[in-house]
Structures are given as structure tokens and as C-alpha cells.
Amino acid sequence: MEHAIFTDRPVEAPLLKLLAEERAKALSPREWKFRLAGHGYGIKEEGERRVVTRLLNGSELGVLPVNFH
Predict the structure, then answer these.
(1) What percent of the chain has pLDDT over 70?
(2) Number of folded domains in the chain?
(3) Average pLDDT of 53-61?
(4) How far is Cα 69 from Cα 2, in angstroms, rounded to an integer?
(5) What b/e readout covers 2-34, taking b as 16+ CB neighbours within 10 angstroms?
(6) I need a surface site. Which of 23, 29, 45, 51 has the fewest CB within 10 A?
(7) What is the 3-state secondary structure of 26-47?
């Protein structure tokens, strides 16, 4: 079931800041995804791209930059 049409738009700055802060606190990518779920966000892997989604409805919010760790 598709909730949104995928675009290559980047994640907005305030959300990217939250993602980076949570990634810095996490010891692993798995823990980071768990922490994001607590905020209502998820990461969907699409090939080499990582798409940030809203867990509530599955809508796609944007693509993470390639250099995002």
C-alpha cells in the first residue's frame, strides 16, 4: 500500500537536526531506529537511499543525505 509518491526531496533541517542528535546518542544503527520510533519516525531503506517516514501513516518525509551517518 503506497501512502505517498516518492520524491527526491531532502529531509527538512529541523527534522534532520533531530535525526542527527538521536544518531549521536545511539550506539548502533538498530538502536538509532528504535529511538526514532519513539519520536514517531522510521527509516525505510530503498536501495542506497534511506527515506524518513512517519510511522503513524507511512508518509515519506524526505531522503537522508548520502553522507549522513
Answers:
(1) 90
(2) 1
(3) 93
(4) 27
(5) eeeeeeeeebeeeebeebeebbeeeeeeeebee
(6) 45
(7) CCCHHHHHHHHHHCCEEEEEEC
Question: What CA–CA distance (Å, rounded) separates 13 from 56?
Answer: 21
**Domain range for 39:** 13-63
Adjacent-strand bridge partners of 50 = 45
Note whether residue 5 is domain-resident. Answer: no
Residue 3 has pLDDT above 70, yes or no: no
Q: Please, are residues 13 and 62 in contact by the beta-carbon 8 Å criterion? A: no
Other beta carbons within 10 Å of 52: 22
Residue 33 lies in a domain: yes
DSSP H or E run through 20: helix 13-25
The conformation of residue 65, written as its DSSP 8-state character, comes to P
Flag whether 54 is in a domain: yes
